[in-house]
Amino acid sequence: MNKQEFLQALEARLGDLSAEERSQALEFCAEGIDDRMEDGTGEEEAVAALGSVEDVARDLLADRPLRTVVRERVRREGNAGHIVLLILASPFLLSFFAIGLSVYIVLWMLMLTVYAVLWSLLVAGAACILGGIAGIFVAGAAPGLCVCGAGLFSFALGLLLFDPARAAAKGSLKLTKAFGRGCKRLIVGRRNG
What we know:
By secondary structure, the chain is an all-alpha fold. It has seven helices and no strands. The chain is elongated, with a radius of gyration of 28 Å. The relative contact order is 0.08.
């Protein structure tokens, strides 16, 4: 597929965007193709590097602010029945929103707590190691070495759990993005074609 065919197919898929947004999106994609061609890539290879028309259109439509999408949809559809139904269902919707927000907050507070515990393990371990070294000279070798060993264990445990905690935080972030996009799709709906 050449540049012109790609841009025409993309424009057909971006029907939900305003004329200005569609123009900006097409210009952005055209510049990306031109940049790759200036670097010596062939036209068809430069177009293929952007991905399929469906994927590019889906990403462009998904990145729009929810406020804009809802405002345009209300303006376009303008059905009073939907608005009345939304008003009547608002107590339930707000309850579900509050529950979802609570779960979200608990999830991130749990992640912050895990990081706080890990950092306290590392700091306590370092402090125990230093205290144990000092204790060797003050209280004797046996107590000082016990404190040093506890510090090394604490520090090693903190280091050992740091990567899994970071992976869990990344997973939580991906889950949050997926949940947000899912909520947006529920509110906005999915456009077929």
